[in-house]
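User: hey, got a sec? need Methyltransferase type 11 domain-containing protein folded
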Amino acid sequence: MLQKNIYEHAKITEYFKKFTKDTTSITKNPGGPSQQDFDFEGQSELYRMYRPRYPVTLLQHLAFTLESNGFPSEKRDLAVDIACGSGQVTCSLARSWKDAYTSKVTKEQYGLNFKKVIGIDESTKQLEEATQMDNIEYRCENAYNMPFQENSVQLVTIAQGLHWFDHNKLMQQIHRILVKNGICAVLGYSTPVFLRYDKYFHPAFKTYYEETLGSIHPPSDKRCYWNIDRRLLDHQYQQLSFDPPFDKKKMDRGMFYEHVHMNEHQLFGYFLTWSGYRQYMKKHNIAIGDKEKDPLNSLRSAFKKELAARSDTTMLVTIPFFLITFPKFKFYTGIINKNKKQKINKNFSSSKNCNVRSQFVYSVGRQKKFNAYHNKKKVKLLN
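Assistant: Yep! Here you go:
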């Protein structure tokens, strides 16, 4: 299983490298999320219905990171979720703690047991339709000026949103409000992968993603219809430096591959939520669902043709999720050493969750701590 997971990780990594051969011109967003990208009609409902939900294995690893840094479930007081949207991750932080390694817990049940969670976003429409819970407070705030005291928050998360911000400016704000040993967690997912459907759908999707939406080009290029640089997500923010204010030696980066069977309604509902698609339709003055001009029509035809050739009704989609965590071990002095080079640990291990077909790859450096934690809790890992 380990060899298989490493092979798949390497294969998908190589797949995204072909999208972005030149990453030196990566564009960092200088501002924040644009209202026009998040306030279209029905946006919150589409996000809630079709956006991928983070796998339990990812949330379990975040729980383990909190515990190993001195925040067991009974001592988790305050978490802040930046760019919370409709509250998908916010609710996971606020739910009552479940047995972190049970095989029966689902995405909708799992929780990290924070007594208080504050979700902030600049989209009022998103916040109005966000999922409500007794221990959640939603605020319409600017993430660069969060009204929290220094050293007051134990966990700050930003899920599928860092690419909308000036990450250096945002990270300094996060570092300011975190308590000692507090965790900054960056979550996200890259473009779905359809490698096994290489007869019709994969080539059509590659053309749609790269050429129609211009995802391999920076936002300044006229061929790109995204207001952010998609290469940041497809490479899991590996182009960004988080040191300072965080110590890169303490950074932990995990990859989680989830394999989901999706029908036409589910997959194309997800495509409808893409801001690049929305911008394309707006700039070309095309109505969504137009039978002649909508670029999703040709992709939909390839989808049906691929499934008909295989006599299937659903497509097995691979979604690459990632989790990057930084603990606040020391106070930032403002001194930057530009001569230091970041080292990437290329050793991997794996874990399997039996509820969903999910694969997890993380550094061997954390394997000993992970195993020690399990032994201490007397929990038997599933093979």
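Quick note: The chain has 13 helices and nine strands. Let me know if you need anything else on Methyltransferase type 11 domain-containing protein.
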